[in-house]
Amino acid sequence: MDSGTLIFDNYRFNFNCERECAMAIKFLLKRDVREVWKKEDQDFTPWVAEIEPLTHLFSECGIDVGELDAETQIDTEVFIPGAARRLDVLVTLSSGQKIAIENQFSRLDHDHLTRALAYAVGLDVRTVIVLAEFHKDEFRSVVEYLNSAAAVYERGIKIFLVQFEVLSTPGSPDVYPNFELIEGPNEWKAAIESAQSGGVNAEMASLLYEFHDRALPVIRERTNLFTNVSPSKGHWKAGGLGVNGLQIFYGVAKEYCTLQIWFHGKSREANLAGYEVLLKHRSEIENLVKPFLVEWRPTDRTAIIEIKINDFGYQSELSEVQFEKLAKYISKLADFAKNHLGEIRDAMSRAITNELPNTP
Predict the structure, then answer these.
(1) Which structural domains are found in the chain, ordered by start?
(2) Mind listing the pLDDT tens digit for each residue in 29-56?
(3) How many Cβ atoms from other residues are within 10 Å of residue 8's Cβ?
């Protein structure tokens, strides 16, 4: 048996290997971001706007956007009506939700933070991410206050301050970008402050937060979904299923919950095409979720497959058994959809292709 010693800050650690140790233990070194991206606007911004960096950025912020793919609208250097400057990145999801991203080498300054908020107002954006190498305490305090105020009064803009850096290993040309959330919305704090404010909806806000806080860990453990979804005082939560515009959804009212397979992409025809794939398996789904009745509901914009669980809402007497039941049926619906994901994706893609104008 091979053995060795790792010495760190005068502490000695002994280790044994069952077979020859080929692993090298190294610390990552911080690099100057300008060695990787020479110019912020010409190099860094286009990189941020790629699928992989955006996926990691949203995950770090805890923003569940489902799967980003070629259909996700990603714009850079976006013109703002009435402003003399442009927003670095604007992401428009299939649901219509917009996320604005403003980035800055070095420290975030007053100009960039104010500009990011102005852009959000001008573009009717409710989520803003500000990327910088360093965020001052004064800006963190301002953003904490704005996020709390926006959540309590159910209006305003959610702001995420994210720090970025580039790391490398000694002697290697490879670099490793890293995002770290510094400040973001605190839904728990907002729910408590809302309750303390004594508003009309204060009690409901606290009850909704408690419901999600108990439901989400059970759902995650059973389904591995909703991984980036946080408790809040909202009525519903949705998790991605691997196709843009397709999510598993649960909503909670006073005395009942609804569970849905939810098609809500930008294309009505694509939503209906995916919905019709599952409609062909109607009897299988209805047998799967007995004793609950299934409502099949195509609308003008979306398509929904829904079941309703009575006597289980945010004002009900809640038990772990009920949350397990909720997770069980979310798992059943999600698994059925995922088992037909290839067929759904193909049908939705064909529908979008048929919508496109013919090119000469």
Answers:
(1) 30-185 (3.40.1350), 191-355 (3.30.1460)
(2) 888 888 889 988 899 999 999 989 998 8
(3) 9
